[in-house]
Specification:
By secondary structure, this protein is α+β, with helices and mostly antiparallel strands. It has a single domain (about 40-185), classed as Ubiquitin-like (UB roll) (Roll). The chain is built from 2 helices and 8 strands, in the order αββαββββββ. It has helices at about 5-15, 85-95, and strands at about 50-55, 75-80, 105-115, 120-125, 135, 140, 150-155, 180-185. Strands 1, 2, 3, 4, 7 and 8 form a 6-stranded mixed beta sheet that branches. The protein has a two-stranded antiparallel sheet with strand order 5-6.
Length: about 180
């Protein structure tokens, strides 16, 4: 069979196949059916770099992430896996942020990622909406309305909370997203 005949046969074969229809990607904050848990073999899987930005008393504003390379200075770089829980991340943040070690400290998590237009947005996978926190002074602190948390943990790990066991994968984390952590002490 000549080269031209082989190319013609291959072209005919390609034309006779049904076209591939790409599956639409699920929305980032979809509340559809529950996904099966992702199990990562941490011995064989390379960890990902998670850029974590901490702030005492509230979340950073989205504008602070607007310029690439000029993110907030209070950054912690953590190498972890997609099956890391918010409790694991809380314990890692407590190692570097003294305010997070306080017994009554609460940590609120939010993802920062670029939207389709390239502008950074803060995203929530939580269905509970915005929560009110009682500050040490006794007054209520309300996070800004454009910031929705992904989860909330308490520094004191003696009592388990529902968000403690939520993983990055369950929360639709994608490699490259930033994690903004508000520390309420």
């Amino acid at each position: 069979m000549s080269l031209a005949a082989a190319a013609a046969a291959a072209a005919a074969d390609v034309q006779s196949r049904p076209p591939r229809i790409p599956l639409p990607a699920p929305p980032r904050n979809s509340s559809g059916p529950a996904r099966p848990p992702i199990i990562v073999d941490r011995e064989k899987t390379c960890p990902l770099l998670l850029r974590v930005f901490t702030k005492i008393g509230g979340h950073h504003s989205v504008e602070e992430f607007a310029t690439r390379g000029k993110e907030p200075k209070d950054e912690v770089q953590i190498y972890t896996w997609r099956d890391a829980t918010l409790r694991e991340l809380t314990d890692l943040v407590k190692e570097v942020a003294p305010a997070a070690r306080r017994r009554d400290a609460r940590l609120s998590f939010a993802f920062v990622y670029p939207d389709r237009r390239g502008r950074n947005v803060m995203r929530s996978a939580a269905s509970r909406g915005i929560r009110h926190f009682k500050a040490q002074s006794g007054r209520h602190v309300v996070p800004p309305p454009n910031i929705n948390e992904v989860g909330m943990t308490h520094a004191n790990g003696n009592t388990r909370r529902p968000d403690d066991t939520r993983t990055l994968a369950e929360l639709s984390f994608q490699t490259g997203d930033f994690l903004d952590v508000a520390i309420y002490a």
